[in-house]
Amino acid sequence: MISSAHQELSVGDLAAATKPDRNRAVDAYRAAAMVAVAVGHWAAIAIAVDDDGELITGNALQFAPSMSWITWLFQVMPLFFVVGGFSSAVSLDSHLSKAGRPQDWVAARLRRMVAPATVLAGTWLAIIGVGSVLGVGELAAAAAVAAAIPLWFLANYTIDTAIAPWLYPAFRSHPAAVASIGVATFGALEVLRLDGHHTIAQVNWVVGWLLFQVAGFAWREGFLPQGRAMVVTAAGLWVAAIAAVAGPYPITMVHVPGIENSPTHPPSLALMLFGAAYSATALAIAPRVSRALAARPKAWAGVVAANAVSLSVYLWHFTAATIAAAAFYALGILPTADVGTVAWWVQKLPLMGSSAVVLAGIVAVVGRYE
Fold this sequence. Notes:
The protein is mainly α. Helices cover about 75% and strands about 5% of the residues. The chain contains 16 helices and 2 strands. The chain has helices at about 5-15, 25-45, 60-65, 70-75, 75-95, 100-135, 135-145, 150-175, 175-195, 200, 205-220, 230-245, 270-295, 295-310, 310-330, 340-365; strands spanning about 45-50, 55-60. The longest helix has about 30 residues, at about 100-135.
């Protein structure tokens, strides 16, 4: 086991060795996105006991739709895919320029994701096994389903990673054509979905998230507006996103069971506009973020350290919430107030704080696999 002192030294050395021209905002956004996802999910979990002492679980937005606006703060996955596209472009540029094989690049990238995911899966398989022996197999399986929710991301990211070595060069050679084909395909499938053809529209699970990766390619290549032009672009996209939810799309930017025109199952036009607006805003301030981090070595070292365990934070945050909720249930202190009320938030915040503490402990153990 690597000592904490050695880890801190390694992080410090890595931070100090950063090239002056590195886009540090990319790293900051990646780390911040994983934290935002965790906090957003913890906020959206509705787990409580009713007047009869029965356990209630579900999505808080099902019980309190008025909370939907919160998703506009924590739906950061579009930005994460943009950042992923930028990082892949930088890595591929270096790999391919040295005559590296595309398949080697894909294998190396996927290995970094598969190892932490395998640890998560193996842990929960063991929990289900032990639970079955103890007679609580159903409860353990239900908890495992919740813990596995973050894995959807790996499916989409795997697809994007697998085709990146071929898509990126094609985009560099014909940026307008690649982007236009992607947007046109998404648009056609979205029209079909709104017309009731839901099966074929599921292809947008791939196309939608892939477009955000392509936006990351464009960012890296300098094809996107900069400065005030990007600010104006972001403002226009925010107006378009608001117009979309004023029309046929729901306000929420995350999936809620039973909702019509789900924003994410598959990605909808509303999510694409929202994600583009969110990402454009982040890109507009990226130069300032990079300069600020370059001028603050301790803050930059913190970003480097956070990135070293960002995937672990993402993969295990539901597990941490499950453990914390089980402890609160055993102690009889789960929230009892109506979901979405001030009293509910007062009762829920300690549960969210406990989830963060549990997650920190888990990451300290499993972070080495990342």
